[in-house]
Amino acid sequence: MKTTVQSLKGTRDFYPEDMAVRSWLYNTLADISQSFGYQEWDAPFLEKIELYAAKSGEELVKEQSFVFEDRGGDLITLRPELTPSLARLVAARQRELAFPLRWWSFGPFWRYERPQKGRTREFFQWNIDMIGPNNPESDAELAAVAATFLKRVGFQPGQVQILANNRRLMDSALADLGVTADMRPSVFRLIDRRDKLSPPEWEAFAAEIGLTAEQLGGLKRTLDDPDLWQRSEEFRRFFDALEKLGVREWVRYDSRIIRGLDYYTGTVFEAKEMARGGRSILGGGRYDNLVQAVGGEPVSAVGFAMGDVMIGVLLQEYGLIKVNTGTPAPVLVTVFDESSLLDSYALAAELRRAGVAAAVYPEAAKLPKQLKYADRMAFRAVLIAGPDEQAAGTVQVKDLANRTQEAVQLKELPAYLRKILA
């Protein structure tokens, strides 16, 4: 028996029904992004590894990137994220661009992950960023974009929340604990892993990076203080703006949110599932140094990213995917016999010219077989024209949704179909 070649581990096949969901997600993201004034853009799928080496953290570069040497000797990677590419594009034309920039993208990415439910090695990701302004109101706008998406697809605030923190606030709190500036990136990674490690493992990691027992105790008290955010005027403005944007109920302060990537500088946030496993849906924040790090002039930026895998899992589990996975053409023109095949093609062409999408069953077959196909592919209407109908200048229209059938004059057919399809 011949062995079927399998797809690569961690990748996905998109059958038409899967592609329908992906297209629906893309269209939803496009509509929301554009409603806030964001322009679509993209970057190469291949980048030099040096673009990420000093900006995204060692874990992403050394453990998660697909890296290879090209024929010229350069180290190349399939892009694991998009923000460094965004910074590179902005730096390349910084003096020509009209700031503030509002840009969004949806495309494929690759990370060498351990494949599991909600995580693959190849995935699609929504990226949306504002470049230019340096104020908490811009941070709030990006959080509002995220909240608008969550609301649009049908989540409730009790099911999903956007959890926010501020790195400058935490930086100040760490300084008060006597944590030196050179240690703070490591402490940020410690905070980021609080929910990912057991308490003994977390405390062992704290000792490993050099925190004293007194500093660790102070850090725990800081992280457990629900009112810490009110010490920051920047963060208070952030939440005031969310109130005005009408999404305050979707966002709350959480000290554990710190984001693992090294380039974040201010507000950071993640959308997480509240009702079940606390799974992360999207994340991002303010990054004010990245454009300069890739050779541009200093410019502020804020943005977030959302992969399609986990959001797809959650939408499926919550019953929120309402997508037509059948045929995109709602009308099927049947074929009475071999001699009428071209007549069926002509009828379908006439309907398309009149603005009605139609497909033809591509060969002569028994009518029950064609009707069974129409049911399986979720056609709304089936057209049947035998010798009697052709002689009378009519077509039998079978409405599969209402289970009715009616003879319709050919000249009235487009208007009749538009009516039932509406």
The proportion of residues forming helix, as a percent range, comes to 25-40%
Widest β-sheet, arrangement of strands: 1-5-6-11-10-9-7-8
The share of residues in extended strands comes to 15-25%
Give me the Rg, rounded: 28 Å
Keywords:
422 residues, alpha+beta, 5-stranded mixed β-sheet, 16 strands, 39% helix
Task: Walk me through the structure.
This protein is α+β, with helices and mostly antiparallel strands. The chain is elongated and about 95 Å long. The mean pLDDT is 92. The longest helix is centred in the N-terminal third of the chain and has 20 residues. It is built from 16 helices and 16 strands.
Nutshell version of this structure?
This protein has 422 residues and is α+β, with helices and mostly antiparallel strands. It has helices spanning 16-35, 50-53, 58-64, 83-92, 136-152, 167-176, 184-192, 199-208, 213-223, 233-245, 290-293, 308-317, 341-353, 367-376, 387-392, 413-421, and strands at 39-40, 46-48, 66-69, 75-78, 101-110, 122-132, 160-166, 251-253, 267-273, 280-286, 300-307, 331-333, 358-360, 381-384, 394-399, 404-409. α5 (136-152) packs across α10 (233-245).
